[in-house]
Design a protein that fits this description.
This protein has about 400 residues and is of the alpha/beta class. About 45% of the residues lie in helices and about 15% in strands. The chain has two domains: about 1-200 and about 385-404, Rossmann fold (3-Layer(aba) Sandwich), CATH 3.40.50.2000; about 210-385, Glycogen Phosphorylase B (Rossmann fold).
């Protein structure tokens, strides 16, 4: 089978869509699938092209037997909703043009933003090929809940646009049960939807000793570290976390934030205003360094703001942290909460509930017996969500769609 995959993020970018797409495609080529990925020139999250690349109209390379076509896009930092929409739309237009010349039997287009799916839909119509919508997030509803776009006409248009793409797709693969339920409740046939959750690359993320060099550089050798690694965005509630941190008096406890995003400067300014000495902020690290930085933390902090949409999500950080035996402190409702609790892989607090958060911090950092139990639970969780196994499941679905 020849497969064309559309994703505006791909390695050397290291965010969740890039990692999932790359690791799935890498497994598929081992099974004899001829995979071509059309993506942007790497620029996430700063909107600046990475060293070694140029924002050309078209260039290609081979990465682990995957043919990667990189197309021109309008680049902007990961903040400001309208500018990012122009970013997404420019990629979609370039991807459509490039995709006209790629031999394929099936097209897959991944979210969270909808314009990649639009490109998949247009190409499928022109090429007369089936296409699969991989749904990672309810993008219009997500930006509505965070207030990134407040114009009702724009939001109404995006919701109608979203529903049209769901209906036009030949099949939909969601990453959570909650996303499938949302689509079914809005009139999308359950029979054309299946679930392939996020997971972890158990070869890349595996238990390892703490990286002493990093600890020494940060001056955190004797600290119990809660680590947040990822986007500092509107959805992540990091201002709430920083406000809570100001009430923690235990000098042994430290919080490490790694990443950037629309709220990074606001969160850093708040920490400075509160004169916090138990917080360290770092810029994003390279993909091949992420595991080393996870190694130095004791607990993986994974919060989201309190919205119905976020309750339908499962942050991919859960699986990477669990595979490295890092107990989780989760501030997310819904399916993510159920997974962490079912495997006894961490503690859960109600999103934006200060008392529950502070109580959980104290409990997980002071009870060695509990901490070791949670590490064992992490091992069980990671084995259930092995990305190789999930890639195989998704490939089976793609074969079925192609045959139909």
């Amino acid at each position: 089978m020849k497969l064309l995959f559309l994703s505006d993020n791909f390695p050397p970018e290291s965010n969740a869509p890039a990692s999932r797409t790359f690791e799935h495609c890498k497994e598929w080529v081992k099974e004899g699938i001829e995979v071509t990925v059309i993506t942007c020139n790497p620029n996430f999250p700063y909107g600046k092209v990475y060293d070694g690349y140029k924002n050309k109209l078209y260039q290609s390379e081979i990465i682990d037997s995957i043919k990667v076509i990189r197309v021109w896009s309008y680049m902007v930092e990961n903040k400001g909703a309208l500018k990012r929409i122009f970013d997404y739309l420019s990629y979609a237009m370039s991807a459509i043009i490039a995709g006209l010349f790629v031999k394929t039997d099936l097209i897959v287009a991944t979210s969270p933003q909808l314009f990649t799916a639009f490109a998949g839909c247009v190409l499928a119509k022109i090429r007369r090929k089936p296409w699969v919508f991989e749904l990672r997030d309810l993008w219009p509803e997500g930006i509505k809940d965070t207030g990134a776009i407040k114009n009702k006409k724009i939001l109404d248009f995006l919701v109608k646009f979203e529903l049209c793409l769901y209906r036009k797709s030949d099949f939909i693969i969601t990453v959570t049960k909650g996303l499938k339920e949302n689509l079914v409740s809005r009139g999308i046939e359950a029979s054309k939807i299946d679930i392939v959750t996020n997971g972890a690359n158990l070869e890349l993320f595996q238990p390892k000793d703490k990286n002493q060099e990093i600890l020494h550089q940060l001056g955190l050798e004797d600290k119990f570290i809660f680590g947040y690694i990822g986007t500092h965005g509107l959805a992540h509630g990091l201002e709430f976390i920083v406000e809570c941190i100001s009430e923690i008096k235990d000098e042994r406890i430290h919080f490490l934030f790694i990443g950037t995003g629309a709220k990074k400067s606001v969160v850093v300014a708040l920490a400075e205003k509160l004169r916090l000495k138990n917080v360290t902020f770092l810029d994003p690290v390279k993909k091949n360094e992420v595991a080393d930085y996870i190694s130095v933390i004791d607990v993986a902090l994974i919060p989201l703001t309190k919205t119905d949409i976020h309750a339908s999500l499962i942050p991919s950080k859960i699986f990477e942290s669990a595979s490295m035996l890092k107990p989780i402190l989760l501030g997310v409702e819904g399916e993510a909460k159920d997974i962490v609790r079912r495997h006894h892989a961490g503690l859960v607090f109600e999103p934006e509930n200060k008392n529950e958060f502070l109580e959980s911090v104290k409990k997980i950092s002071s009870n060695n017996e509990l901490y070791n139990e949670l590490k064992q639970g992490c091992s069980l969780l990671a084995k259930e969500f092995d990305r190789k196994m999930l890639a195989s499941k998704m490939l089976t679905i793609l074969h079925q769609v192609k045959r139909v």
